[in-house]
Amino acid sequence: MMNNFFRCRFVPEAGAITGGRTAPGACFDVCKPAAGYTQKIVIQGFDWGPAVTATIIRLEDAIQADSVRAGDFTVVEKKEAFDWAAMAAEHNVVSSPRKVLDAYACTSCGDRTTLPTQYIRLELSYGPNTGIPFCYDFYTSKNTWCAPYELSVSLAANPALTTIWGNRIASLSVDPVIRFEDALLPQLGDFHRNGKFAGSDGKELRFAYYTPALQPGRKAPLVIWLHGAGEGGADARIALLGNKIAALIGQEFQSALGGAYVLAPQAPGFWMEYDEEGHWQDNPGIASVYTKALRELIQAFVDKFTVDADRILIGGCSNGGYMTMNMVLQYPDVFAAAYPICEAYKDSGITDKQLEGIRNLPIWFTYAQNDTVVPPADYEAPTIERLRAINPNLRTSVFADVHDTSGLYTNEDGTPYQYQGHWSWFYFFNNECVDDTTGENLWAWLGKQHK
């Protein structure tokens, strides 16, 4: 659905922003499962990406709210998965149980109710390896929605579930097929997700964005987030859920910035593409084919909204870290600060003249030393060393590895769960980046940057 009040200008010529808010929906017709389907899932974003945290089931008959018990339900997940053991191009279909943590009568939107209803919400277990609706393909370097993705829901023997007429329900007829188009995304409700932009060079970018509540006449900084390789394409939900971007519109981050616009562009393919044939993985350190279009999108956004043009902050991870460096090297006077994370711009491709251009630009690098995807020795480490000699505004957060800091996920021996060393953006989204020398906090630092 489109919220027409907050539509952007719909014009086909290059340089125009189009799109609008994907409305979260106010209730019954929006929240209930689509015709022909009996389930609607809830997806939330976490450090590692998205997880299906609940399913809302529509029953044929209204039931008594107090007859719903978690122990009466069994859920089995069936989904597409990349075969990492065989490293095969053909994907597997795998099945695994999902533990039901809680169950309760609810409205069609999933809100708990004590009234008779046709809807039941099942809260499901999830984790770094459980409940993920994305299928990452090693050969395409892309995340896609799992196809198939199914949740088979059944009742245990002698369940307590009872209709409003007092009849026990012995079995369920629940279609296991899930429609991701109908999924509830509670963390993304304040994002406008249908943005489209056509650059003067013909390159088209999708984008999502957030607008803060501002006093009349007040301008706010613009925070730009550039996604990694797996989140390119034409579905903003993948870009927003692949990393925990919802943190940028959360109270803690917004308070640190004093209220900020958030712009999350999405490349059709990969930010690191350097020719019209789409080559990117062997980028030797040269400009992206999306450079001009992204610059024009940023300017169009600044022109449309009450953005403080002296407080444009740009950052991203991996492919997006590359694009962050690419943009500041190409347009050093546009940005107030940059925060590249595990950035993939090869140091050997950066000239001394380019570094001179950003000698006064505040830059905060974040990476983990055990990153094997983008080895620091070839990318950020030598660039940081060269910048230290000329840039007094350089900051770094260098971690030994990437591990769980929430205390929720552990290895079998009880130590914190270990993630791929490339995933250092976790620390940024959890506000755990401090400068290795000064002890400054990155979010607070971003809030102070001004040209």
TrEMBL record:
InterPro entries: AB_hydrolase_fold, EstA_Ig-like_N, Plant_Biomass_Hydrol_Est, PLipase/COase/thioEstase. Keywords: Signal. Residues 218-399 form the Phospholipase/carboxylesterase/thioesterase domain. Residues 40-145 form the Esterase Ig-like N-terminal domain. It holds the Pfam family EstA_Ig_like. The keyword Signal applies. It comes from the Bacteria. GO terms for molecular function: hydrolase activity. This is Prolyl oligopeptidase family serine peptidase.
